[in-house]
Structure formats: structure tokens, C-alpha cells
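Protein in question kept in full:
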Amino acid sequence: MAASFRESGELVSIIVPVHNAESFIKDTIDCVRGQTYKNWELLLIEDGSADHTMDRMAAYLEELRDERIQLVKREIGSPEEKKFGAARARNLGLSLAGGRYIAYLDADDRWRADKLERELVFLREKQAGFVFTGYEFGDEKAEGTGKVVHVPETLHYKQALSNTTIFTSTVMMDTEKIDKSLMEMPCIRSEDTASWWKILKTGVTAYGLDENLVIYRRAGKSLSSNKIEALRRIWNLYRQAAGLSVFASACHFVPWAYRAVRRRL
């Protein structure tokens, strides 16, 4: 099955929003170049970094001379355009993507070498438009900690409201089955979760590949403060993005919070 992908030459467009990532952007690029599946394009969307990210990326890409990699600087012309940078950067990458398949990778995360290959095989087997995988929490060096998040076989809209195990860096979508306009992320907090809900609400099923193919690098911030902020964001999503009542929001919020906290313990 994997060989058929290599023969067919189906292009995967990998979109990476990059902001203040000078410490690990080289590792991010290397993990993509090390993929067993080689027919990809990497869209690095630089998003107003205040450190040396842009210079380091440009120097490294000059050294590599890999024509599959494109560095794009997102133009920020107003204070409003600075807000929700990750969503805007991903949407810009989406507009530039030339591949049939769209894959997301955050600049501080890392893929296993066979991530693209395994996920493409799975997507074809399921004849799916939207797939995601399991992942592992990593330390600040993106070394696995042994804490693996397992994913369900399928997720529908109502299930996803209470079980947001879809991690952005594990997602792959087929533009022949899901229109690009539907993939565009809203400019709100937790834009990725809101985007998955938007897609699933149309009747799309997300298929989960329960294999640990991604390392989620955890920043050295207070875990308790991160959890509190996450709780606030998801509550606002229920009320604003999903348009649920207070009661309906609470019914989904409680099981979501329980699962989210357990994943991070």
C-alpha cells in the first residue's frame, strides 16, 4: 500500500505557522525532510517573530537548497492583523498549498519519520477526508515522556464537542473530499478546535489512527495556568463558536475538562 503512494506521487502540502521559533525550527524542518514519504511541499509561514527565527530559517534553507520548502513572510499591516496569528498563518498557507492533501505541523512539535506514510495509507484505507493520529507529550527538547494520548476510531460532531483529542500536528485532510474554504480557520482563540467542529458539523467523520506518530513539545510554563487558560478558551468556544446554551455548554464542558486534565497528568 505504501509503495502505491510513492508511485502515484500525490503531493502533501505541510503548513507550519512560525512565530518566535528560533530554538527549534531547524528540528522542525529536519523532521519533515526525514519523512519516509518524500512527495511533499513545506510551507513555512513566518508570522511576525521578534527573535532571530527569520534569519535562522533563511540561512538554513540557503544551506539546504531544498526546492520543496517555501518560506513565506506573512505581511502584518495593522494591529488587528497581529491577532490570532496562527489561524491567519495557516489560512495563508492553505491558499498557497498545491497538494491534494493538507497536513498541519506546529513549529515546536516533531513528527515520527513514518508519520506521513502511515497516515496516507490509513486515509486511503478508510476512504476518508479527515484523519488524525495519536501523539505523545514531549519535554522541552521534544523527547517523549511516555505519556501517550490514544485516539478513538471515529469522531462525529457531537462526540467531538466533549472529546477534543484531535491535535493539530496530527491532522491530514483530502481537498478532494473537503473543500479548502471549509478548512479555513476562524480568527478566534482555540481556532484549531473550532475549525474541527466546523468541518464535522457538516457531516464529515474524522477517523483516528491510534498510533503514536507525533511528539507534542510542552513549553516550560506553569501547567496549572495552562489548564485554566484552556478551560476558559473551550468554554468560550461552546458559547460563541458552537452557539450552545449555558446548559448544553456545561454538559459538554464537564467531560471535556475531565479528559483534557487526564491527558496532561
